[in-house]
Amino acid sequence: MLEISGLTRRFGPQTVLNDVSLTIAPGQVACIVGPSGCGKSTLLRLVAGLDRPDLGTIAVNGTTLSSPGWALEPHKRQLNMVFQDYALWPHMSVEKIVGYGLDRLDTESRKTRVLALLDQLRISALADRLPSQISGGQQQRVAIARALATDPALLLLDEPLSNLDVQLRLEMRKEFSTLFRSVGKTVLYVTHDPLEAASFADVLVVMNKGEIEQVGTPEALFASPRSAWIATLAGYDTSIEGTLIAHSDERAITMQVGAQPLHIAHTGNSKLATAPSGTELTLMLASDRVDVTQGGGDPARNSLQGRVTHCLFEGRNWRLVVDVAGNAISAVTTHRASVGSHVNLSFSPDSALIFAK
Ligand SMILES: Nc1ncnc2c1ncn2[C@@H]1O[C@H](COP(=O)(O)OP(=O)(O)OP(=O)(O)O)[C@@H](O)[C@H]1O
Fold this sequence. Notes:
Elements: E1 2-11, E2 14-24, E3 29-33, H1 40-48, E4 55-60, E5 63-67, E6 70-71, E7 79-82, H2 94-99, H3 107-120, H4 136-149, E8 154-158, H5 166-183, E9 186-190, H6 194-200, E10 203-208, E11 211-216, H7 218-223, H8 228-233, E12 238-249, E13 252-257, E14 260-265, H9 270-273, E15 280-285, E16 291-294, E17 303-313, E18 318-324, E19 327-333, E20 342-346, E21 352-356
Parallel strand pairs: 3-9, 3-10, 7-8, 8-9
Antiparallel strand pairs: 1-2, 1-4, 4-5, 5-6, 10-11, 12-13, 12-15, 13-14, 15-21, 16-20, 17-18, 17-20, 18-19
The structure holds adenosine-5'-triphosphate (ATP).
Residues 11, 16, 34, 36-42, 192 line the site of adenosine-5'-triphosphate (ATP).
């Protein structure tokens, strides 16, 4: 169990982590995602003991690792870290690297443990090779085997797949989902790729500007995203900016988009219910759930009028880019539309998300 409470880290005037609290249950795989610079690596480094917090505490399985004014040295923490560049010692064989932290074991036990790990990571055939004699994906496995060798309570991984090509990254996602479950470790995994994270995480931790924005299973998060950034990940790939005119009820509003009043029924957003008129809003839609019909029309609920600026063939469908008061809205249709033509865009309430800025 990893327990982080009120963690704050400042660098000069910049607060990089602000009052971050998080609990990860034993054996869970938690992936930290968020835009570049939001503080993901800083959080991982504080847990690893490579940096010290200004405020807050960190504990693993009830043992305090860090509290105000006090920090356990990194090598005394029951955890190991896998770095982005693997950090393998170039002059050692794979077998020596993996067994490096096992000097408390006798030679025979050490060999047995190392061979079992090499087997688990499917790199037994590479035991005698140097890091320079194996591929990036294999180096990655060696780094993980080394991190697991001392049986840590917590495994930390910082962007472990970012140096691999796309195909290998997809392969490794599958392997990670099996590996993490089979070793039963609590895992804290940082990545800038939310879909990588969602593919095997038990818990997604979304950070933004040094704070935790949302925590939950990937399915729960994508079903009810709390921010426009998370909504983008959940497939809401096109957006419209406007201003709140009025609430009709808690699930319907009128939003001014350029000269058009847009009446929107939506699935509810508690923050929106209290927003005053004049609030800037972002309406997010999924381009494959926007219906396109030809010609203008009455500005009915959940419909907008615009002009086609691009019509792009995508193999099976057409992607239209439609200008609505300066917003480039994307919509996927089964038929072509002429550039310059006027179209009506409509969407159902359950495919619209609205965020107040
Ligand atoms: N030692 C440091 N001194 C000053 N500022 C730092 C230091 N380390 C990190 N920062 C700043 O803290 C912020 C968060 O950095 P961090 O590396 O944690 O972000 P990140 O979310 O991991 O980003 P990325 O996805 O780009 O790796 C950044 O603005 C960064 O410039």
